[in-house]
């Protein structure tokens, strides 16, 4: 006896919806909270949520290479995430003017198994922009811009 087609299709549709669930949205509501939100998100390993902290046309500069737009930025972030370490950050300063903020951050990525081992470190220069919805995103991210 064949299963009823009416029974199979809803079950399959439910599986598809679960498999394609959207990542939780992550937002920084102030420029002062941005580094903490970014750090928590990158350490979670959720690259799609991390990309939500970037403007669609943002720019990231690393090693003299400019990465523009979320697709290119994703490639760059995957390199950082493949280090497999844990990011820690400390704001040096946050300067806000209306809907724009300049931020300088000391950051370090330590090995998760040997926390004394530093995988990468630097001081970044970042420009954030407040969005109409009220949250802040990168428009410029230069991880080594103040190193």
TrEMBL record:
Q: Which keywords accompany this UniProt record?
A: Signal
Give the signal peptide as a residue range, or say none if absent: 1-21
Q: Name one Pfam family in it.
A: DUF4440
Q: Which residues form the DUF4440 domain?
A: 38-136
Q: Which InterPro entries match?
A: DUF4440, NTF2-like_dom_sf
What's the protein name? DUF4440 domain-containing protein
State the species of origin: Shimwellia blattae (strain ATCC 29907 / DSM 4481 / JCM 1650 / NBRC 105725 / CDC 9005-74) (Escherichia blattae)
Q: What is the lineage of its organism?
A: Bacteria, Pseudomonadati, Pseudomonadota, Gammaproteobacteria, Enterobacterales
């Amino acid at each position: 006896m064949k299963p009823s087609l009416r029974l199979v299709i809803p079950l399959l549709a439910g599986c598809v919806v679960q498999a394609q669930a959207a990542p939780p949205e992550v937002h920084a509501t102030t420029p002062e909270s941005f580094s903490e939100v970014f750090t928590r998100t990158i350490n979670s390993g959720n690259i799609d949520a991390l990309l939500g902290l970037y403007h669609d046309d943002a720019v990231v500069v690393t090693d003299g290479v400019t990465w523009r737009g979320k697709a290119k930025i994703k490639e760059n972030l995957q390199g950082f995430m493949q280090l497999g370490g844990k990011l820690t950050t400390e704001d040096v300063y946050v300067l806000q003017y209306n809907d724009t903020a300049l931020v300088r951050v000391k950051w370090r990525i330590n090995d998760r198994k040997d926390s004394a081992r530093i995988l990468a470190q630097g001081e970044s220069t970042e420009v954030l922009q407040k969005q109409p919805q009220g949250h802040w995103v990168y428009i410029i991210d230069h991880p080594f811009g103040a190193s």
